[in-house]
Amino acid sequence: MPDQRRLPFPEDSVSYKYYLKEKAVEKDEEEDEVLLNSSVIKNANGSSYVEYNGAKVMVACIGPKDLAKREDFSLSGLLKIELSYCAFASRASRRAPSKTTEEEKEQAQIIEEALKSVILLKRYPKSQIDMRVQVICEGLAETTTMAAIVTACGLAAADAGLDMYGVVIGAATMGTFASIMPELNQVTGILSVAENIEDEMKAVNKRAQALYPAIMQHLKEKDV
Fold first, then answer.
1. Which domain of life is it from (predicted)?
2. Which letter does DSSP use for residue 166 in this model?
3. Which of 26, 37, 79, 124 is positioned for an S-S bond with 49, CB 3.0–4.6 A?
4. Separation between Cα atoms, residue 199 and residue 151, nearest integer Å
5. What is the DSSP string of 6-67?
6. pLDDT tens digit sequence for 35-81
7. What is the DSSP letter of 185?
8. How far apart are CA 125 and CA 102, in angstroms?
9. Which domains does the chain show, CATH number per domain?
10. Cα dihedral sign, 148-150-153-154
């Protein structure tokens, strides 16, 4: 047992902080935490893994591939989003294993509509592109999770070499999510429960613009 009568440090000791030449820079509350990785699934045409403010998402891009049914023929390519959550993805409670929930269907539809304005589907007639999204850990808010999904889908599409109008980025506050193409300054999707949507969109767009250099640097290093 340690000697309780002895101090673990000399009585005349001084904190090391007094000798620091510069004060530590506190993290900006508006700064997003993001981790990007691509080509993480070998059997997929393109794939990605993204962490965004606590949310963790993995996406596999399959295609373009021939349509499975002749009645689905289209001069423009079809985009299909398959979204599911891991049983342990929820921060509140464990999800029961079941079929796709209504929440997942609604989120998949929002993501699909957002990406249709990004991918040049007319370049892929008679073809289908599948985006299989796996949410490993959801964010503190639904908006954060949606932003991570959009960014991951955009990275997976770029990794697959799909023709796109530009890089798409998902960014969010606690009340608003938006899918944004910073190069064209266009919003392709939005989900908000905020009262002052104008101020919220300014904050979300600012975050998307701040993430853009990191994503472009990642794509450059991957030579995508």
1. Eukaryota
2. S
3. 37
4. 22
5. S-SS-TT---GGGG-SSPPPPPPTTPPPEEEEE---TTSSEEEEEEETTEEEEEEEEEEEE-
6. 999 999 999 999 999 999 999 999 999 989 987 665 556 788 999 99
7. T
8. 30
9. 32-91+98-222 (3.30.230.70)
10. negative
